[in-house]
Amino acid sequence: LEDLEIAPTERTNPYKAYITITYGCDRFCTYCIVPYVRGRLQSRSHTEIIKEAEVLAASGVSEISLLGQNVDAYGKDTNGEYDFASLLKDVSKIEGIKRLRFTTSHPKDFDENILDVMASEPLICRNINLPVQSGSDRILKEMNRGYTVSEYTDLVEKIRGSLPDVCLTTDMIVGFPQETEDDFRASYDLLKELRFDIVHTAAYSPRKGTKAAVMDGQIDNKVKATRLNELNAMQTLLARELNENYVGKKFEILVDGTAPIGEGLLQGRTQTDKVVIIKGGPEYMGRYIDVNIVRASHWSLEGEII
Asked: Would you say the CATH fold of 129-244 matches that of 1-125?
């Protein structure tokens, strides 16, 4: 545990930093190797995390992301009195921090306390990654996810009710052992119904030492690929449709780097973590600027500086 207190902060540029708040996981999803290689949940001391965030803010960092395999479980390995909601509230009060992000959440541990803090603290970014992994109750049980499709859907509705401008993303696995065509279709239909901004999809890949790796009913790789392609094709169209809603509107972005393609282009992100490409020079780097959104693709937006 001592090693956790001196874990180095990851910095991608002078304006943004990532702070690891937990290691390991207690959930033991049947496909996941993390609890076996990283151990059970270990939460860093909140005083150390806050101190680290204060130092970063004093050095010019204005956006901090709190990281963990399951950040919502923060503090549950200790007495549970100081939980993730408490940490969010305290870090958001640090002078100099303009944006606070976190990832990743677990539907079983994302509670009303977290949602209440997000609703009351405007600098906590309206962007939540909430992995669902399957739209089939049977497969969710085999995965040991700890919730049903109905419970997950209720949580999504509750989040959107409290945070109308939230950008929800999720993770989905296709081809889990014993997944039937009906199970896959349930996943497909769920994504179509809930309309996530981004879906991180993956074909199931066995991890040695996990329960799922030795389950009966392993799915053929060609079937996995077909299902993955179908899911991605649907999500690409849906993501573009959702991004079109941003066109013609004004947003504040933090300019944090050069665009991956195109000369003289920069990129920034909205508070909801939408990537926005703009024309501009190095003088805009690290600045919060207002832009009008003029075009949208499934992956990014194009903006003009106001």
From this structure: yes
